[in-house]
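Figure 3 (text version): structure tokens given as input.
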């Protein structure tokens, strides 16, 4: 897979944008927004495409994410309530109650094609496709991206908000898949794939023409599969505050690494360091220290 060497690539997270309601209070969240925020902090021009309500939660969320550096000109307003997720932590590991009938379930498709055509990378998942309105908007956006755009399907199976049809359609759009070791057997069962972990991944990559698959395994690290190789990684040892958003930061770091011209092994290592840092902090979008940002510095052009 050819990747760019842009100093400021255009990166988009499309889908849910919400408040994570944690035991310690509310924090901005939603996997695509988390992804975009971390990509922006690594030097991308980062856009969130989503919707918030015409309510106090929506105003506060827009203000908070604007301060985080996200470009929110494509965040829509509607009369549904701004999304919230109630998060409980058990030994730092989150579980979620995702509230329904929210603003981000009703992202409109119109007015997104120009951004889609300019995007160097876009990240999307299944959760925001639980409603037909947002599902149409995400599909329309993905149908307008360039051939060389990195289309990252971070599958994020949550509760019962997914289906075989949505997964198949999303895989057909993607050229990078991110999936964890709990989601892989569920996906394999839905798609009638059988065999070992590696053989299931390879089968999915062949069937849907996926160039890279990132398989995460929590505290056991993970594997990154390319068409001809596989790279393993182990997590950095840190004192964990919580793991909210750590996977999204890994996805963002890996994507920025590829856009900056890193080899897959380099991008994995840098993304692993970023995710470890996020685990050592509270919330999904902590500011990056200089040592983390330096890992993703643009490569000189020969």
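Below: residues designed for each position.
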């Amino acid at each position: 897979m050819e990747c760019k060497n842009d100093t400021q690539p255009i990166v988009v997270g499309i889908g849910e944008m919400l408040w994570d309601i944690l035991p310690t209070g509310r924090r901005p969240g939603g996997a695509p927004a988390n992804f975009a925020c971390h990509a922006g902090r690594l030097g991308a021009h980062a856009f969130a495409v989503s919707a918030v309500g015409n309510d106090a939660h929506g105003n506060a969320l827009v203000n908070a994410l604007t301060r985080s550096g996200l470009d929110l000109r494509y965040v829509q307003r509607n009369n549904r309530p701004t999304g919230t997720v109630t998060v409980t932590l058990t030994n730092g590991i989150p579980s979620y109650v995702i509230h329904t009938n929210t603003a981000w379930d009703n992202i409109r498709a119109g007015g997104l094609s120009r951004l889609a055509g300019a995007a160097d990378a876009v990240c999307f998942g299944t959760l925001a496709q639980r409603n037909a309105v947002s599902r149409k908007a995400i599909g329309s956006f993905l149908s307008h991206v360039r051939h060389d755009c990195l289309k990252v399907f971070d599958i994020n199976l949550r509760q019962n908000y997914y289906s075989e049809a949505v997964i198949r359609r999303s895989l057909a759009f993607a050229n990078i898949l991110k999936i964890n070791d709990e989601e892989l057997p569920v996906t394999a069962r839905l798609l009638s794939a059988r065999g070992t972990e590696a053989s299931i991944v390879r089968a999915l990559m062949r069937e849907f023409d996926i160039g890279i698959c990132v398989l995460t395994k929590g505290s056991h690290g993970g594997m990154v599969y390319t068409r001809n190789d596989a790279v393993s990684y182990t997590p950095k040892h840190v004192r964990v505050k919580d793991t909210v958003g750590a996977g999204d930061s890994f996805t963002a770091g890996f994507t920025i690494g590829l856009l900056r011209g890193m080899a897959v092994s380099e991008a994995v290592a840098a993304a692993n360091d970023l995710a470890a840092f996020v685990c050592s902090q509270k919330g999904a979008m902590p500011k990056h220290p200089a040592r983390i940002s330096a890992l993703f510095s643009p490569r000189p052009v020969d």
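The longest strand covers residues 45-53.
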